[in-house]
Amino acid sequence: MSDRPGPEATARLTRWEQRTEVPLFLAGLLFLTGYAVRVLAPHDAQPWHDISLTLVWSTWLLFLVDYVTRLRLSGLGYRFPRVHWLDTVVLLLPLLRPLRMVQVYQAVQRRRDRPRLNLYARVMTYAGMTVGLLGFAAALAVYNLEHRTPDASIRTFGDAVWWACATLTTVGYGDATPVTFWGRVVAAGLMACGLALLGAVTGSFSSWLIQVFAREDEKRPPERG
Amino acid sequence: MSDRPGPEATARLTRWEQRTEVPLFLAGLLFLTGYAVRVLAPHDAQPWHDISLTLVWSTWLLFLVDYVTRLRLSGLGYRFPRVHWLDTVVLLLPLLRPLRMVQVYQAVQRRRDRPRLNLYARVMTYAGMTVGLLGFAAALAVYNLEHRTPDASIRTFGDAVWWACATLTTVGYGDATPVTFWGRVVAAGLMACGLALLGAVTGSFSSWLIQVFAREDEKRPPERG
Amino acid sequence: MSDRPGPEATARLTRWEQRTEVPLFLAGLLFLTGYAVRVLAPHDAQPWHDISLTLVWSTWLLFLVDYVTRLRLSGLGYRFPRVHWLDTVVLLLPLLRPLRMVQVYQAVQRRRDRPRLNLYARVMTYAGMTVGLLGFAAALAVYNLEHRTPDASIRTFGDAVWWACATLTTVGYGDATPVTFWGRVVAAGLMACGLALLGAVTGSFSSWLIQVFAREDEKRPPERG
Amino acid sequence: MSDRPGPEATARLTRWEQRTEVPLFLAGLLFLTGYAVRVLAPHDAQPWHDISLTLVWSTWLLFLVDYVTRLRLSGLGYRFPRVHWLDTVVLLLPLLRPLRMVQVYQAVQRRRDRPRLNLYARVMTYAGMTVGLLGFAAALAVYNLEHRTPDASIRTFGDAVWWACATLTTVGYGDATPVTFWGRVVAAGLMACGLALLGAVTGSFSSWLIQVFAREDEKRPPERG
Fold this sequence. Notes:
The structure is a homotetramer. By secondary structure, chain A is mainly α. Chain A folds into 2 domains: 1-97; 117-225, Helix Hairpins (Orthogonal Bundle). The first copy, chain A, has 9 helices and no strands. The first copy, chain A, is globular and about 55 Å long. Chains in contact: A-B, A-C, A-D, B-C, B-D, C-D. At the A-B interface, helix 6 and helix 8 of A face helix 7 and helix 8 of B.
């Protein structure tokens, strides 16, 4: 009852993942755009509504095709959803797709082949981008769920973005907060995912700053002796 | 005036603790369930009320039996409460029992004998689960203490859970806050216990992310040279 | 223009500090008690008022005597206030005295000579105690400054303690906040001093937890091989 | 298409930067003073208005001259804005100038040639000063943008400073929050810049405290043996 595929299955899976990671990232951005159009366009704006529906469903179909292909390539069968649980969650809730960005980020950097950023800068860039996209997705979802509620404090998309900023940084002013059940569920998810990532940004920045100052100490002595 | 038991007493105590840790964890979950039923069931629902009372008191009796057995096995006599002060606190306030989860967690992992998670993942899993259970227990207690107060902002159990999420992540919107004395004492306790544990989750996640990126650096060179 | 005293001056100063640290700590507690009585006692309760005035001024006189003695022992003259700036600040604002607790803590532990706590536990104990005393002093000061203001949200001492808890943990509900100028100055000071210390508690706890899990890894192998 | 200038260009650039860093820092302080006068002086106070305009524009001209000189010295041509993107941002938004303080701080310390602070103390001093100046600049900007809005909660400059304190420490009471679009943009920027820096302060303090306690452990043994 091994949860790990054989070596050739792994190789096939890796090749597939390397080839699809950038297209899937673009599909993820299109999905987010489609969702944004659906949420933000006025309700009687027919062309926008159709465009957004097409974008959302066609990109989701791509995600499904990718998931099924990887399930078959892996040779894991019914154990795939449990082993690759993050992929399963991301398939069902595509707004969480930024969480898989770590692979895309590596792929993009590998292709450009430019002098790589140092370790801390890369952690900060990756975690910062993921947090930004997650926060944007959460602001869209919360705006969609809240703005028609009678006693809502989040009434415009600007309020929702402001709420997302105040939540991710744990400032939490409380001047704009979700009041519906599902809005609060999204908010709790944003706190859980986002805070850990923001902790990574802060931690990396702190380590990097200490490194910068420590390196200067090493450079200084010859200047004196 | 040594606070440490002799070697054979330690061995007996260890054997007892290893045998009882999983049953006690299940008893702790039953206690929490009983308390949840007592708090959340409507007041005239007689069968639920009886069930919850039975659960709470019978599990607490188990905790007492375990405490007394360990007190006698340890051979420490009247010094036991001071040496094992965390156990004493947990006996008197069984809602704090999640704090003892570290032993249970180890025991469960040892039995399943599966490839162990890495260090950071284990710290995150343990601290995350403890925080989750503590937050649930605090939400129950605060709901119980607050929801009948005239000027309360925590009126439903959903409000209490929302308050616990906002408190544990230090977001603190302030749209739902305890107003009674005992509600605020519970809240202060949740802040003190929970924040340290959440700091552990964030810190471990940050360290793990840096480790993941650092490991990739080691893998990359052969790809180039 | 050396800022450092000679070796025999240092020895004399060290001896004086070792002898006075516990009495000064007790004087600090008496000062806090006196201030608490002055703030919390009803205004027409004459005996309490006199007792608190006596306590506050006599302990402050002790602090002054200690400061002048150390100034003369150090042989630094007019440079003493600049070199020992923390002592100067603490003399002028005795409510900040918990900040000097690190020396007391060491002295007490040295005397009891019991098996010392590990590094992280000591940092946590020291920082936690300092934070607790600073928070209590800030709650007293804010209550004193705020509770007679017409539009204050801090009206009882319980409110002030609740505000201090929510501020130190950075939860910041905002249901009780200072509104006067000096109340906000005290609050900003509490944020600045307290948060750094609380960061130390969280950081130490996180490091300690990782250490506990790492040590278990070392213990486990023999159990298997 | 190298982004790095040749060695002699680097040497010339470094010499220019070393000579200008202290004058530029003073110009930055003058800019901030001029902006503060413009924001805080009553609107009909003609002399103050003129002084502030002169200060702001003449210092900005200095920044422009410095930027153009460095652009020409570097020999990078049109690639300069992209390579030195932080300098470009700081030229366009001079209120962000504290972010470049790390160089100034080093320069000042080098000149005074006094026994250097340890690593953590320097990180704390640098990050603390940067956070303080950024917070002051943000408070000025938010006060300027908000105080004439009808439903503003930030009405005096004191409110704006109080808001900046509560935001930078992530306490976020919510009793004073920006309500206009641009006010919220400034606030989001303050959260993003400030929190990372404050994380550096907290992290360094925590590391320093652990170091202090660890060093004491090393000193203690001879006292006993």
